[in-house]
Every structure is written in C-alpha cells, then in structure tokens.
Model the fold of this input.
Amino acid sequence: MGRVVMNASVSVDGFIAAENDDPGPIFEWLVSGDVPLDDSGVLKVSQASYDHVRPYWDEIGVTIAGRHVFDITDGWDGTPPSGIDHVVVVTHRGRPAGWEARSQFHFVDGIEAAVDKARELAGDRVVEVAAGDVGGQLLAAGLVDEVRMDVAPVVLGAGKRYFGSVDAQHLLEDPDVVVQGNRVLHLRYRVRR
Done:
C-alpha cells in the first residue's frame, strides 16, 4: 500500500493562499529556473528543485483534494493535474452535474472514504493529499505518513493555513530531506507515530 503524503507550497508563515484563494508569490519558484518540470513549457525550476520534485511527481498515483480546491480550479478542466491518474474529491455535496463520465474523478463523503478509495486506486503508488482543511483533517485523524512542504520566501500575514484548522499538537520527525532551490526550500518530514 502506498504512503499518504500531505504536500503543498507554503509561505514561511504557514499559509498556502490568501483568504481570497490567491497564492500570490508562493508559486514563484515554479517559474524561477531554466529546467522544464513538465511538458507544458510553463513550469521551469532550478536543477535542485527538478531533482527533488520530478521523481516525487512520478510516484503519485492519486491526489485527494477538497471540494473547494476542485471548484476553484474548475476541476482542472477535467484533466487530473501534473499527469496524475486519479483525483479523489472530498465533498458533502456529491458529484457535480456533468462529471459522471469522467472516470478519473471520484467524489466521496468523508476523509476515511477518501483514503480508502485513493489507496484502492493508487496501489503501491503515493496518495498525495492537498494541504489545507482536508489535509489537516487527515493529519488529525492519523492518516498521513509524510508531510512535504515547498517553503517560499514570502510572508502572507493571513490566509488559508497549510494545516487547515488543526488545533492539536502533532509531532513530526526531523526533516529527512532539505533541498534549496531557486525561491524555495523543499522539506520532507515523516509523521511520528
């Protein structure tokens, strides 16, 4: 069974976006280098970031996201992001109209159902969880194995928190990966059990 990894770019003060969902300069690192990260030609990062991020992206089989992320991305225009095979959307509102035929998108009610479905689809590949409210709920429930952060050198001051509304202490191991790229510091922590 693949590991469950919470991942996102984040400001140094712990926000993944402003209150209006604008990430501002948090993603600047994705266009601050000269090494193409994907086939789009848009994302270009430093060699250090590429060497860290690309192998991880290639491991991801499924992404879990909340309905809010699904809605603000307009469902990634019907194509799972970054070449991922499936997206599991946590929602209490069910599948939106017109999404019945899109077999790569799965709509479930609750975080446990999301992890079960994602693990079924991912097999031994990574299940990635978008940081924010859903990611924080999964961490609080003990369902996250690893936390990855792409820390951007910006202070947002307020906004959407990386760990959502988590209000209890959770211990992580010391970072086992620390990679400096252009405009980013990549960190990886295992969740202490």
Q: What stands out?
A: Residues 97 and 143 are 30 Å apart (CA to CA). Residues 4-190 form a domain with the Dihydrofolate Reductase, subunit A fold (CATH 3.40.430.10). The two ends are 17 Å apart (CA to CA).
